[in-house]
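Illustration: Carbon-nitrogen hydrolase.
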Amino acid sequence: MASAVRKALNIALVQMKVTANKATNLQVAREKVLAAGQNGADVVVLPECFNSPYGVQHFEQYAEPIEGTAPGESIRALSAMAKDAQVYLVGGTIPEVPQRQLYNTCPIFNRAGHLLATHRKVHLFDIDVPGKMTFRESSVLHAGNHLTQFTTEWGPIGVGICYDLRFPEMAMIAARRGCIAMIYPAAFNITTGPVFFELLQRARAVDNLFFVATCSPARADPEAIRNEGVYPAWGHSSVVGPVGEVIATCDHEDTTVVAQLDLDRLDEARRFYPIYQQRRFDLYPDVAQGL
Ligand SMILES: NC(=O)CC(=O)C(=O)O
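Result:
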């Protein structure tokens, strides 16, 4: 008898504290990914910049190659974690240096530890909110040039990184290519996080009637933020369902958020609100490009 297709997948978001010590970050990530796998996770997500502090002054020092014959230590460690935990691993992001140019890149592994895909942050985080938050990723990073999806037994899943969440086109194209979810390793901050983070996740979910999951670093200690200029991550890693409902979330502490993505929820939302059939691409053909 053919085995029934499972209609739900378990996801775990590892909101870990990131330090200046790469080896410690890799070890902490490993422990948490293995624990998530033991607790039944199918897909585990790490935060944006999980192996290095988040800041343009740090990227070069922590950067590694991802693809090719000599991947860096973070990639070897992530591959082993995915294999040992038997999970799909959306491996947060690391600063990537394929040759001379730097990227902020998310590597994605299957349960055997094979690299399935990489997503290079497409929209770089360049903002200036005077006196609160100035960040200019483009001063050292190059932008990625492709949209990313990977295949699972539940359906394809799209991947973006943090600032990519602000661009609805990316999630919409993923949805129209059949994705059941978008996953974003992210590091919003205490200026933009309270205003935008949940709102953007709920917007992307309800725009497309699919799941959205984000994974942030935990917030550093207040003294390190005040005295050493450490990036003040917002935290609040979350899973949002197809009608914009927050299924699981947290504050800014070191924790793992778990949730079930029940595909019946997605089918039901699309039955109740048939926007996929009702779109009028004849009136907005420029948005129809990109498939
Ligand atoms: N860190 C980011 O890429 C994005 C962010 O913090 C924001 O959009 O706000």
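Reading the tokens back as a structure: The pocket of LQR7VSFR is lined by residues 125, 162-163, 166, 187-189, 192, 196 (CB under 6 Å).
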